[in-house]
Predict the structure of Fasciclin-like arabinogalactan protein 12.
Amino acid sequence: MKHLSPAFPLLLLFIYSTLTAAQSPAAAPAPPGPTNVTAILEKAGQFTTFIRLLQNTKVADQITGALNNSNQGLTILAPTDSSFSNLKPGTLNSFTDEQKVQLIQFHILPSFFSPSQFQAASNPLRTQAGGSQGSFPLNVTATGNSVNITTGITNATVGNAIYTDGQLAVYQVDQVLLPLSFFMTPAPAPAPQKPKKAARADAPSGSDVSTTADSSGAICLSKKVIRAMASVILVLAAFT
């Protein structure tokens, strides 16, 4: 009788492992990560200042959250570095931290817009700035393939799409979009009313004065009548 080779059990184990691995289902691919807006802008180039403001104001994180939690998509209007260079010197530094957040949010529309959808857009368009109240709107005018944005301060032209995937659209604009409310002079506060002078405690009111005067006159009149009657009585008594 022939004896089996000591390696035979190992060979069987190898064959079994190979067959088991072949029958196991392949691992599902990992879901795609959220769209990285700053990476899109970095790849396109000429958006260094806008990227820095997106990161410093944390608006980049807001964009990521909105894309993950909303089905309406977003549209970003990205000003170029030359657009920021064309601003009046000191403009950005004159804004508060809150205004810088609002400025960047003002460049974001809370809906996806394809180039053709700008043609049918209804003004004013709500932006991410000001929340649902829509206190930072802008107007869009589309003529043919030309799309213009008006804020009341800035007139900008929308350029080519840098990126679009059906949920996020990023367009280049040739001007920094400045909100009108940043430059409106607030209405002056009403002047405080002067306090009325308190009446003196020892001074009688107008009605009291008139009443007192009337009473005094009546007393004087009564005394005169009494004196006249007394004189008449004395005269009559003299003749009796």
